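fwd from M.: "can u put these together and see what the complex looks like"

so here's what she sent:
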Amino acid sequence: MLRVNQIEVAYDRVQVLFGLSLSVERGEILCLLGRNGAGKTTTLKSIMGLLPLRGGSVSFDDKTISGLPAHKMAAKGIAYVPQGRRLFSELSVRQNIEIGLMASGAGHETREYALSLFPRLRERLKQRAETLSGGEQQMLAMARAICARPQVILLDEPTEGLQPSMTSMIREVIIEMKNNGVAVVLVEQHVDAILAVADRVTFVEHGVDAETVAVSVLKERPELVNAYLGV
Amino acid sequence: MDFGPHLFVASLEGAITAAVLALTAVGLSIVFGIMRVVNVAHGEFFMLGAVIAWWITSLIAGHPALGFTVALIAAPIIVGALAVICNRFVLHKINYEPERTIVATIGLLYVIQQTTLMTFGPEARPVEAPFNKRIALPWFEFGESGFALTWPWGLSTTTYKLAVIAAAVVILLVLWTVMTRTKIGLIMRATQLDQEMAQAYGIAVNKVYALVFGLGAALAALGAVLVVPIQQAHYLMGDDPLLLSFIVVIIGGLGSVPGTVLAAVLIGMSDGIISVFFTPTLAKILATLLVAFVLIFKPDGLFGKRRE
């Protein structure tokens, strides 16, 4: 349903993506795997419309969405959980969730659903986002995205730096979203995490999609990971 | 007059300066806080508020309160709309790049100032206050007969001056409520905290910028309309508010609204008091010196947050 077709993206004069393509269907988890600086985060930002495309296009349900201003993407059904979470730090947990709800126009039920996934946030509604622990901040970043009622969710290293219990909790939520028919694009560094949740893996190297394989193939050919991630 | 009553009068004058300064500086502060724009033309929006108030009151015959009320509502709206146009056709075009916005707003400053000189002229023109009753103020004394209230000669103020202070307080409270309790305030604060994520969550940042720039200019204009019956409208009257607003915003902490208000009270009061007892020049010297010390010892302002 989401198709990224040969996109080229640059920051000023430094080109990062050189014709990268990927696609993800409803109820599928696609992992992006690659070295630092390969262009994974840039790909997610470009899908969100936060970076202008020099070439190529992004389409959603066969309609081109690239070129739309970034603030129209949420209404199209795309939500973004960036690396480092990037919550609205001085706003309360409640207000951060409120902004997610505003993006979709969703109401009370969505809010309750998000809080039922992360009960700990309910205890902290009045607290400022910057005072939460790392794990709680990640929960809030996920809850904010869920409140935007996405059909596609872009997750940039959602378990980075979290303790194992948090990591598994975040992973369960990702799988629940997939089961609800959301298309998930996940940037992840841990191979075991990828094997556990992903359906397909796109290896990103030097700003292009080097190879896309089903996760079952990856299980049979673990040397692929070394080829794209090894130093 | 004795020292006590004299200080009392000076403090009242200072409170008026502080009230008008708080409105003007908060306008500058939200523009910087949310848009990261250093608006050098802010003082000219203040001046335009006063000049437009004079123009409106001169058109409307009848009781001065009628013209003044129209000016109080219309002048900030006109100035705000003009600022929105400046934002759309100047700041937006240069992508809000910091260096270029400074140069561009310096340009706006001269365009607005010289256009006013060519149309309004070089004279200072008065606007009549809507009401202006002189009231004598009491002072206390411990005489032979114990505690007693007296009404020293010269210790007085006017109802209008008190109304200016009250109006500024009310406007600032309304602004604070809007910023912290309403949806539009939430959108503005989210934009301030992370512009990119605000966009990712459906906030049209360009519209927020237009609104904020208009609101900032309208607040300056509002301050000017309030003070013009005391001060007169003149095409150069924007210079002092610009300097003082910058001083206040730096001392209060860039982008911090409560810090800005507090600093406005501090600088406004001391400006009023020092001007009465010594000279206005000394007041400006001390205020600028204070900025230097704040920048040395607390570079993010008294209430500013350290940026990463």
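replying to her w this: The interface with chain B takes residues 48-50, 69-75, 79-80, 82, 86, 88-91, 95, 98-100, 102-104, 144, 148 of chain A (CB under 8 Å).
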